[in-house]
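Chapter review: from sequence to fold.
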Amino acid sequence: MISLLSLHPDATPRRDAIQHPIAATRGVSHVIFLALFLLSTFTPPARADLTTCAQKLHTGDYVGCIDEARKAIDEGQYHEDWRHHAIRAHLAVGSYEDARTVLEQALSRYHSSIRIRVLGHDVYMRLGQREKAAVLLEQINTLVTNRPWWYTDAPDLVAQGKATLLLEADPRQVLQLLYDRAKKETPGYRDTYLAVGQLALNKHDYAEAAKAFGDGVKRFPQDADLWFGIAQAYAPSDDVKTTEALAKTLELNPNHTGAMLMRADNLIDGEHYEEAGQWLGRALGVNPSEPTAWAYTAVIAHLDNDAAGEAAARERALRYWKTNPLVEHVIGRKLSAKYRFAEGAASQRKSLTFDPNYLAAKMQLAQDLLRLGEVEEGWRLAKEVHQKDGFNVVAYNLITLQDNIAKFTSLENEHFIVRMDAREASIYGDRVLDLLNRARSVLCDKYGMTLKERVTVEIFPDQKDFAIRTFGLPGGSGYLGVCFGKVITANSPAALKQNTANWEAVLWHEFCHVVTLQATRNRMPRWLSEGISVYEEQQANKTWGQAINPTYRRMILEGELTPVGQLSAAFLRAKSALHLQFAYYESSLVVEYIIETAGLDAMRKILSDLHTGIYINEALAKHISPVATLEKDFEAWARKRAEAVAPDADWEPLPKEAVRGGPALDAWLKEHPQSFAGLMLLAGRQFGQEKYDDAKTTLNSILTLYPDYAGDDSALVMLAAVHQQLKETDAEYAVLVKFASLNADHVPTFVRLMELAAAREDWPAVQQYAQRMLAVNPLVSEPWRRLATAAEYRGDHAQAAKAYRVLLQMEPADPAQAHYDLARHLHALGDPQAKRQVLMALEEAPRFREAQKLLLAIRAAQPQPVKPPAPVPPDTHAAPKRGQ
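The token string follows.
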């Protein structure tokens, strides 16, 4: 059938929004345009007699709405909306057969109603009668085609839009030609805002959805459905607004099953299964036939290894529609959210057997497969979704990303496949493989794990690409890396812009997830997975991971520890970025406590139990203690750990007047001479006033109280700056060495240590701190210059050649010199590439005499000794200069 409603997309959307074209006309039947030109001003008839019924429908008194509608219908009330309200109320309470009865009576009475038919499509679909639902769409097409001037009011325009979208039309044209016109003609029609917002949600355009629902709430502040739309729109980005909107929804409609299901969804994510079950019970109390509620019930049963309960819940979910693809899609989506991607993918495949064109399942399956490392099929499915729905933002993002990944270089060995930017791979790809090999050797042995498949690691120089590969949409700026079990995604140093992180620590952390997730078949709570990874960072390198600091100390002692049984939720509903970081730290403390008190073997046994499907609380009770006891004992242990931090320091908060400095601070310190916060503030003031000797005294007092604080605001950093100002180079060097032993990614410290070590001609130290800096950012020239110089002095031609090769990729200010330096070391190594490099130097600078001499020596096959350059003072580079 050729339908005037079958509109097709003809342009590619932006990654994150539905486009609003100035003129989107291609593919629209001329009859639609005729209908739009004939639109006239519509004034809805008075509905005073319908107000109470509608109010009951929208506030959740569905039974009352049904009773009033039945009474009006029995009395012969003609208005179509009585049937609308009755059908919607029957659907809300799960009486689908009664809804069909009212529908079919209405269809026999309202022969030309397209609104009844759109609603009827929903009724028949819930009953699994897809053929009858399709007939209604055909009837809508015929009615609008034959008499377009009849369907010109806002309700009919919105109905046309819904029908058109069901026929896979171009969303932009629906938005412009139908929904926008409906809003313009009748701004007070609520269903327009709901339709626009739902369209945006379906395409993952959450910003547009928030705007549409927000505009609706301004006009209808007491409308529960619009508030629920706001909750859905902000769910990916703002927990506070989502929570507030959900609360408002349930305040206005205590029986809003959508809001109840969303609450349950969030609780399942937070591993609060009992509470989630209570919300599902409430939803099923309103609608015992709600398939999504039964799908969530099946998920909880699956996670609890209750096969019988899972099967029963599935059967109830499919009671009316035996091949409803939504049910398996929801089950699979939630299992994938638990990192059970193989199980989730299996559910999506089953969903697609019910409906091969169900794009939500196909899109989720594509993402699951990509996370399982089955990239060929994953990319193919994403492409299929994009071809079918050009406005699916996730599909478009992935297709675009695939083009970017195709340009990556692959580095492979028997254990790993590393995909990364070609230039970055040539600079530090070998370091990546070496780090991963070491992590595999240490962690697999420690946890008794044998990995049977290669692990894929993808490193992205663009944070947006990382987010799309990881989450499907831009965002996730707080994440450095993510592990899915067999696939790791990570940001490269280039993606972090002005921020810094030790990429070696990140990859070690993520590979630890590979070990623990595979050891448990991805059946472990979020807190335990993260806790082990942070713990193992510190075991590998004491500067990695997270260490206690004044803020964490205060949070522990002020009762902000999350109970162990609720720790996973702390990652999902953190009040702030600080609280999220504290969740990682606390999780690592729990792991440390378990291993310290019960031993590593107990942790291995817990992981083994999780592998067999035993729930975490049961495993903890079996090998450690019941969760309630564990929580109590751990809190006492953690408090002792916090109290041991600078025990002689005065941790009382500064009063406001003392924070401003001046006499108030002096008076405070007179009464609290060991105030950590007060002394830090005083030292900062003294440094700013260039009272360096006074600052040195104050800072040494602080370090007596708290010598091992590793934060970027450590007293060690300021003391080193004081020594630098006083030209006390040896003291500065000693302080910086101490700080570097505590901090993994403070780049200014590594830069200064390289300078000072070079001036002392301590080439091993230069090399050490250059390597430390490369673990943070290998994409800058400074550490490579220092490595080259140190290698020259140590006679390490291979290391020097490698450093100069990298420097040549960084657009050196003097490329001729860099080519010459590389040629010198290659010649010393007997590498025939030396001639090519010296020729390139001469191409840049034909009169470069040293290069000319080297070329002659190469031609004569005479090795030329490499003379180290003169020592270089601090703050200068050690690379030798080219003569004229």
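Two observations follow directly from the output. DSSP finds 45 helices and five strands in the chain. The longest strand covers residues 455-460.
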